[in-house]
Design a protein that fits this description.
Blueprint: H1 11-22, H2 37-54, H3 60-76
Helix pairs in contact: 1-3, 2-3
């Protein structure tokens, strides 16, 4: 799946996609701040539900999941979010 909201095939986005496809947050949790684990789990659950029902990678919940994971990862690494 290649989506316009994903930024290339960076390790964080590859892990986010794997988590979305499997419904397993363990793929992405090591890449976000520990204190954000609950947020990521909740977003993943919503994104998985939307993705499975609609089969649409551009669904709002899925897009929000990818964007938030990217921001949390950048924050963990000390980068400015856009």
């Amino acid at each position: 799946m290649t989506s316009s909201h994903r930024t290339g095939d960076s390790p964080i986005m590859t892990a986010a996609q794997k988590a979305l496809e499997t419904g397993n947050a363990d793929h992405i949790l090591p890449m976000v701040p520990e204190e954000s684990a609950g947020t990521v789990r909740n977003l993943l659950e919503r994104a998985c539900c939307s993705y499975r029902i609609r089969k649409d990678s551009h669904d709002t919940a899925v897009v929000w999941y990818y964007r938030t994971v990217g921001r949390l990862h950048a924050a963990r690494d000390g980068h400015r979010s856009q």
